[in-house]
Design a protein that fits this description.
Elements lengths: L7 H8 L2 H12 L14 E4 L4 E4 L5 E2 L14 H13 L6 H8 L3 H19 L7 E10 L13 E11 L2 E9 L5 H11 L5 E5 L12 E5 L6 H4 L1 H17 L8 H13 L7 H10 L11
Helix pairs in contact: 1-3, 3-10, 4-5, 5-9
Length: 297
């Protein structure tokens, strides 16, 4: 569904007050109007000072944030909405340090906000499966160290990468950080991100032979200097991903790598809808269930 674009001033005008943000969340939570979870009544009044809806009939009180991504938040929704806009409006993303300064919150709070937003991103992307001709490869992400590069390099995390090819351009992309590139991790990746029976191009790394179990596998022994000729799009995507991570976040830890991959994929898969991204991401966050702290700690 096409969404309208929104400038910074338009966002401020629409979501510049706490009441406006609560109303927007309430519309998503109760699309047919308020319904009391206790008695089913559809009449309620809003207690501004406590930011609660109170049922007209049984007087049960409920927060619009309960059972949502913003569950139990002590932060004003205005700051949440601004965080969503800041994340969506800059194609390079925003670091927790910069978000903390712009929102006037601590670094741990900013990190928590951004992690929850990225969770909404990956859950929205999880409904898609790649199809048609697909390029599939692995790469390694981590801090710079002397010694061996690529497979087997110390201090780096392997990442599986798949991208649809649409003529000379890329379609949707999927990425998964794994502990090791093995047949089992390849099988799990394919089951999660690809429709069965697609044509998948890879190099001749033995673990990638698992591709033929569910897909049409085209493999080729590829020296590093010729890799971009056999798998051109996936190598461009890998380069863009590393530029995104190093440029905005100046590298990430292995523990949190996946959430940054999720953000990159979400952005890339919607690159042709960039002006719509703030409202698209807002809708994804408004419709999301609570995220437990343990999910991203």
């Amino acid at each position: 569904m096409k969404m309208p674009s929104m400038s910074l001033l338009e966002w401020q005008k629409r979501y510049g007050t706490e009441r406006a943000c609560v109303n927007e969340l309430a519309k998503v939570r109760w699309p047919d109007g308020f319904q009391c979870p206790e008695c089913g009544s559809q009449k309620a009044y809003y207690i501004e000072i406590r930011q609660l809806h109170q049922c007209w009939q049984c007087r049960h009180q409920v927060s619009a944030t309960a059972g949502t991504l913003f569950h139990s938040t002590k932060l004003p929704l205005v700051k949440w909405f601004w965080a969503i806009y800041l994340v969506a409006s800059d194609k390079g993303g925003i670091s927790a340090l910069r978000a903390s300064k712009l929102l006037g919150v601590s670094w741990p709070t900013a990190h928590s906000i951004l992690s929850k937003i990225r969770t909404a991103m990956v859950h929205r992307d999880s409904i898609y499966r790649l199809g048609n001709l697909i390029e599939f490869d692995d790469t390694y992400v981590g801090g710079k160290r002397t010694g061996k590069r690529g497979r087997g390099a110390a201090g780096k995390r392997p990442v599986l990468v798949a991208v649809e090819t649409r003529g000379q351009t890329a379609g949707f992309v999927a990425m998964e950080a794994v502990d090791t590139v093995s047949k089992e991790t390849v099988r799990q990746f394919l089951a999660k991100h690809l429709n069965p029976g697609q044509t998948v191009k890879t190099d001749a790394f033995p673990a990638l032979n698992a591709v033929k179990e569910t897909q049409t596998h085209e493999k080729k022994v590829t020296p590093p200097e010729n890799a971009s000729e056999w798998l051109p799009l996936v190598h461009i995507i890998i380069g863009n991903m590393k530029t995104f991570i190093n440029g905005t976040f100046h590298g990430v830890s292995s523990v949190h790598l996946q959430e940054y991959l999720n953000e990159f994929c979400y952005r890339f898969n919607r690159r042709f809808w960039e002006p719509e991204l703030p409202l698209r991401l807002l809708n994804a966050c408004l419709a999301h269930v609570p995220v437990r702290q343990a999910e991203f700690d």
